[in-house]
Structure formats: structure tokens, C-alpha cells
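Worked example 2:
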Amino acid sequence: MMIKTKGYLKYLYFSKIIKVICIFYFIIFNSIINSALADTDKILPIKYIEICKNVGLYANTGEGEIQQIYNLRFDNDFESNLDMYYRHYRGFSDPTIIEWDELAPYHIIFDSVDDNVIETVIISYDELDKLLFSEYRWDNSIVLEDNSNTIGKLFIDYKKIDYSSKNLIISPDKKKVGGVIFYVVYRYDGHFVHHFYFNQPRLWDAAEGYVLFKTEYAEDLLKACVIETRFSPDSRYFYVRYPKTFNIDLIETATLTTIPAQGDVAYNSDVHYMVTGRNGLPTLVDLTTMEEIHKYEIAGAMTACAFSPDDKELYIVDANRTLYIFDSKLPTLVVDWEIFE
């Protein structure tokens, strides 16, 4: 049997201290590198593809047009299929009337292995809603805001404001209902009565029906249409998306605070990271610390993004209707260190 001398025990003691110090400095160094990446390093795409050259989309008909791919989803049954949803809004010529005519959307199926469009199909907005909201979609009933302990229907006409709810969706944990309040405002300018409409995000308690989160009344003309309402898979985040200037209201459901976001939000598989627009560029954000880790280089404003099922690739579409494919470069996190003697 080997007898451990004092010198040998002293060696083991100092060896462990040195290893702990090395680990500490590695963690600090890795954190500094990630912080520096947020300011200096922009990740370039593996490839990019002009989607509009491959499919027959609506032709431009002048000003007042919004034509974008706003949604990317990987098919649960065919993980190599990336589903794109193309929306077309046409505005009225009168600039005082903020209304949009929603033309029939396209469903574009893209093969992420062979990098080509498999199929382009015109669908209805009802079909689009079913594809996007799946099992968590609420019916278009209206949530009561009067603390009556029920979820039902309500219509309020108050100070010339028609006030109702739409785009309702239940969180995956069934504890919250998210949606938007829909306003129609009428104005008399001395000659004509004009009206415009806009939306504000809301969160309700699903069991009791009372309001958890709401924004104050504001005549925000940039939120005249709603593209999508969606919860994160773990119910921690809720967002409302608007087509004009690619605005997003992203709300943390626990703290009921808003988080900066633009264009779209994509979560990795364990919802530790998200990608969203920050200062005009898609940015990887650590949802634990809210640290900005990487930025992804694209030419136009981001309109949609999605992680591949294995989180290794990131797919982004910009306002030029170009699909970018990136190495996501999710950080390699060392959770546990094992010290060998």
C-alpha cells in the first residue's frame, strides 16, 4: 500500500488550487470574449437565397404595399422542410386612413437540405392561423376586463372608441391568455369624418379573467395591423408582431416587463437563447442574463427567423425577401467541471 507523504499531499493541494484558478480565468476570459463579440463580431451567412426569384408572388402595384415573408417554421413531421408564410397588405391611397387590405397569403415550402423551393401554394388566412397557432390558438371570442371571473365577450363604445379583443392565444401552461385590444378612432377634420385603427397588447389571467398586462392608450399608427401573437414554448415570453416597420411588443410574463425586440423572435430548443432584432441587426441574446452575444450580418431589416430543429443553423429572412442560412454559433457552455487527480 502506497503511503502518501506530506510533500505529496502538499502537491495535490496546490495542484487543485491551480486547476480551480485556471477554470476561474477560463470562465472570465470566455465572458470577455462573448461581450466583445456583441460589439465587434458579426457572423456572416453560410449562404443566402433570393426566394422571390423562385416563386410567383404578387407584383408590385405602387406605394402603400407591404409584401414580406413574416413567418418561418420547421415542419414537425418533415424536419428538412422549412415553411415560409408570405403576407401581402395593400393600403388605401388616402394617408389619413390607416387601413390595410389583406390579400391571400402564400405558403412556401423550402427544402433545407437541397436549398430549393419545393412548393408554393395560395392559402386562406383561416388556414394560416391554424398553421401558426396550432393547439394553443384561442377562438376569436373576447376576453372580459371587468374582473367578473369569466372569459366571454365584451364590446365597449367609449369616447368614440370601439374597443374589443382579437388574436387571442392561450399560453402552453394554460395559465395566461394573450392578445391585442383593437381600437377604431373617429375624427372630424372640418370636412370629413376619418377613422383609423390600431392595436395594443394585453395579457389576462386564464383562470380569473383579470388583466395582468396592458399598455396605455396611444394613437400609434404604426401598429395598425397584427401579424401574429405567440407565446414561447415555456410560456415565459409573449409577443405581438406588426408589419409596419417590423415592430414587436415582447413581454416577459413573470415580471410583466417589455424586452427590446425587432422583426421576429426565435428561441433555441431549451429557450436559453433567443434571436431578435437589436439596433437593426439580428442578435443572439442570452435569456438568463439578457447579454447580447452574437450579431448576424444581413442586408435588410429582419422580418422572420427560426432555429433548425438541432439548433445548429439559424434561418433569417430580410425585407428584401432573401433567406439567409447561418451557423447559429450558440455558445458552448461548460456546466460541470471534473478535476482528476
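Helices lie at 6-40, 125-133. The chain has one domain: 41-327.
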